[in-house]
Amino acid sequence: MIQSPGIVDRAVCALLRTRWLLRLPIPVYRASLGWLFGERLVMIEHLGRKTGERRFVVVEVIGMERNVVRVASGLGRTSQWYRNIEANGVAYISVGRFRRVRARARLLDAERSEAVLADYARAHPIAWRHRHAAMLVAHGAEADIPVVEFVPPRDPSALDDGD
After folding, report:
1. In this structure, is residue 162 part of a structural domain?
2. For residues 117 and 109, is the Cβ–Cβ distance under 8 A?
3. Is residue 60 domain-resident?
4. What letters, b where the CB count within 10 A reaches 16 and e where it falls short, cover 44-59?
5. Whose CB among 12, 13, 73, 120 lies 3.0–4.6 Å from 137's, allowing a Cys bridge?
């Protein structure tokens, strides 16, 4: 049974809409201190779909295994970082002690995304309860939450270093 969002969940949703707060970890990652966040968060460096400029976002890791890092776009397919990844698939990720690793993004379909989120919910029931409730507040109803997998590039030389 899904509980209705509580005051904490509404506060979390409000915080997730506070851009400056969400951007606080980016300078930490760029200063090579991302390891302080462990493997729970990942910084994704991607290219703007219109400008081609480097963009950065830090999101929660919802699954990880050898050569695969999975994240969910909690605000759905309209998140700017998700739209940029969808447009060009070019990314570098920083997670744990790994910094600026070239990666190829795979956008999972709705069915596979739901399965990955269900695995996350089983592994982290309390975190999922609050995450899901915050998403309900943000969307006003059940949301389509896409999952992105970052994997090694097919052709590492195809990705420009950008430096």
Report:
1. no
2. no
3. yes
4. bbbbeeeeeeebbbbb
5. 13
Asked if residue 158 is part of any domain, the answer here is no
pLDDT digits (tens, 9 = 90+) for 123-140: 989 888 777 777 776 666
Residue-wise DSSP of 128-160: HHHHHHHHHHHHSS-----EEEEE--SSGGGS-
- For residue 26, give both structure tokens: 């980016």
C-alpha–C-alpha distance, residues 149 and 44, integer Å: 12
Contact present, 134 and 9 (Cβ < 8 Å): yes
* Chain segment 17-53, per-residue pLDDT in tens: 666 777 889 999 999 999 999 998 999 999 999 999 9
Give the Cα separation of 37 and 29 in Å (integer).
9
Q: What pLDDT is attached to residue 66?
A: 92
Mean pLDDT of the chain: 84
**What is the tally of structural domains in the chain?**
1
| Whether the Cβ atoms of residue 26 and residue 59 lie closer than 8 Å to each other | no
CATH of residue 64:
2.30.110.10
Domain ranges, residue 83: 7-152
Asked whether 74 and 120 are in contact (CB, 8 A), the reply is: no
